[in-house]
Amino acid sequence: MMSTPSRDINDLFDDIVLTEENHARLGYEEGLKDGKSQGNEEGYKLGYSQGLQLGEELGRILGEVVAQQQLPHTERVRRTLDQLRSLIEGFPRKNEPEADIIGAVETIRNTNRRLRALLGTKGTASPEPSPANRKDYSF
Predict the structure, then answer these.
(1) Do residues 118 and 80 make contact, with C-beta atoms less than 8 angstroms apart?
(2) How many CB atoms lie within 10 A of CB 69?
């Protein structure tokens, strides 16, 4: 009869410790992979939503600027309109890690506030007519 060589008790304890460490390492790696995947998806959704809102805001401001540029204004207003249009047209449209998007948005918003003050309007460069003055085009 062949007998299997007996193992030292210390070897058995080492195997137990290593097994626990291996399982812990594998669990950590799997959790990290899953966490990154979920984090990337949530980050993408948040970024997409915020980007969409920002694009709408910048598009609205640009539309107002272009409309105002068709009207006669003082030189100061004209310069502010040109500056605001340049800021919006120069806004990053590609994912550039070195781009200061937050700073660019703050500059655009501040310039737009300055323009509204120069034009003497509160909300937008082209205010909505009051309900009494609004024309009804429905049939």
Answers:
(1) yes
(2) 14
Q: Alpha carbon of 103 to those of 2, 23, 50, 89: distances in Å?
A: 79, 46, 16, 15
CA gap 43, 49 in Å, rounded: 10
Dist CA 81 CA 74 (whole Å): 11
82 close to 88: Cβ distance less than 8 angstroms: no
SS (H, E, C) 52-118: HHHHHHHHHHHHHHHHHHCCCCCHHHHHHHHHHHHHHHCCCCCCCCCCCHHHHHHHHHHHHHHHHHH
What band does 108 get if pLDDT is binned at 50, 70 and 90?
very high
% residues pLDDT > 70 (the chain): 76
Q: In this predicted structure, which of 14-28, 63-77, 81-95, 111-125 has the lowest mean pLDDT?
A: 14-28
Residue with tokens 């948040």: 46
Share of the chain above pLDDT 90, in %: 45
Which tokens hold the place of 121? Answer: 């309007």
On average, the pLDDT of the chain sits at: 80
Q: What is the pTM of this model?
A: 0.61
